Fold this protein.
Amino acid sequence: GAGVSQSPSNKVTEKGKDVELRCDPISGHTALYWYRQRLGQGLEFLIYFQGNSAPDKSGLPSDRFSAERTGESVSTLTIQRTQQEDSAVYLCASSLNLGRGTEAFFGQGTRLTVV
Amino acid sequence: GENVEQHPSTLSVQEGDSAVIKCTYSDSASNYFPWYKQELGKGPQLIIDIRSNVGEKKDQRIAVTLNKTAKHFSLHITETQPEDSAVYFCAASTLGGQNFVFGPGTRLSVLP
């Protein structure tokens, strides 16, 4: 597709369940980023990928969060044993190169609600 | 690591007036500064960016200025319109392949 695609757009899950969020970056973009945005708040960095490698996982809030990327394409963010404080919009972005002055384009986000 | 501050957090202007949002960054190695506009229920959209080798860039009603010495950059919107109402985020990207660090955002309201 022409832009970054995220699925699902909305997800409601029960506390304690695992969820998997998907990001399809723009074709050819080697860098991929995940951010979390709580209601009315800014963008909280979670993790980025350069190709399939994630050099910086320091933003992941806890060991319940993990992410992977395969084939320099699709990335999945997995949250295990979800908690209510995980409720937020999870945004994915991709860029041609990591940082270095190239634009990052965002998807529409996945709104996660943990009940 | 990089730290980006943004002011004001909220801004209300009358339609037709100008709006200015300011950001400061801490890492002198940062070399790329994009601005994003986020409308309700949507992902952030890149509206303008500037690289450290220029001091100003303009695109129709939107302009961005950069002062590398003072480590601050600003977004200027002239002749504001109601559809400019949104949350605006600044960001800084550091050399060496780090991620984008975002400011906390400014909620702009353009009053008709």
Summary: Chain B touches chain A through 25 residues (CB under 8 Å). The two ends of chain B are 41 Å apart (CA to CA).
